[in-house]
Specification:
With about 250 residues, the chain is α+β, with helices and mostly antiparallel strands. The protein folds into two domains: about 15-85, Orthogonal Bundle (Helix Hairpins); about 90-240, Heat Shock Protein 90, CATH 3.30.565.10. About 55% of the residues lie in helices and about 20% in strands. The strands form two sheets. Strands 2-4-5-7-6 form a five-stranded mixed β-sheet. It starts with a helix and ends with a helix. Its EC number is 2.7.13.3. Pfam families: HATPase_c (PF02518), HisKA (PF00512). Keywords: Kinase, Phosphoprotein, Transferase, Two-component regulatory system.
């Protein structure tokens, strides 16, 4: 009898954790929303004009709120991935169209920066969650943006076939690169590396862990290759989608 009670409690742990995270996520967003609304009202000068110092202070608050919103989303994604409760809305996706939309999402991130972003795509189909694959690509590119040179930074995204069953997505940059001791740990939660640039930009250390979880949830693999001062190269695979009509033998 005792064994059954313990077993039932253990079976409900993921459900309880998921519920607790949903409540915490909702509460944090609820408290952030009015702060963001007030900041946006001040930025639009609803309460009167601001001087230069006040503009800078409001801008700082706005950026901090945006970072907190991003952190809340990342923590929620990590919990869902750990509990294997991340819902994927898979559909047939044309890779060329997907990369065109990614380009639109990435352009605002490099506006005003001396960064050349190049996307080399190919036609093909995958069966995947469009928003989640875009999230992986954007996360990898944002990571590169932080580490490429301030002048003549270069980021290249390439999509190509990897054998007969996978598409290989690569994100390469000309930044500082990754130390060999970081390569083995870089996809771990909250790991930010031991090198100076990693500490300088102070990310949450969740972005790459989320990328790994999303890719693996699609049946793919993700890894990094690098040499210090030779730039970074991140690669991930997603299975190719073959429509059923093409599988039917004549």
């Amino acid at each position: 009898m005792t064994t059954n009670i313990v077993s039932n409690k253990q079976e409900r742990v993921p459900e309880i954790c998921s519920l607790d995270m949903s409540v915490a996520n909702h509460d944090m967003k609820t408290h952030l929303s009015p702060i963001k609304m007030c900041v946006e009202m001040l930025e639009s000068h609803v309460s009167g004009p601001l001087n230069e110092k006040q503009e800078r202070m409001i801008g700082t608050i706005h950026r901090c709120v945006d970072k907190l919103e991003s952190l809340i989303k990342d923590i929620s994604d990590v919990y869902k991935l750990e509990l294997q409760s991340l819902e994927l809305s898979k559909m047939e996706l044309n890779v060329q169209s997907l990369m065109n939309e990614c380009a639109d999402l990435l352009q605002p991130l490099i506006v005003g920066k001396s960064i050349e972003l190049k996307i080399v795509g190919m036609d093909g189909l995958i069966y995947a969650d469009k928003n989640r694959i875009e999230q992986v690509i954007v996360n990898l590119v944002k990571n590169s943006i932080d580490f490429v040179p301030k002048i003549d930074g270069k980021i290249t995204i390439v999509v190509e076939k990897d054998g007969f069953s996978n598409l290989l997505f690569s994100v390469r940059d000309n930044g500082e690169g990754i130390k060999s001791e970081d390569l083995e740990k870089i996809f771990a939660k909250f790991y930010r590396g031991v090198s100076k640039p990693s500490r300088m930009y102070g990310g949450s250390g969740l972005g790459l862990a989320i990328c790994k979880g999303i890719v693996e949830a699609h049946g793919g693999k993700i890894w990094a290759e690098s040499g210090l001062r030779n730039g970074s190269l991140f690669k991930f695979t997603i299975p190719i989608w073959v429509p059923q009509s093409q599988n039917v033998c004549p």
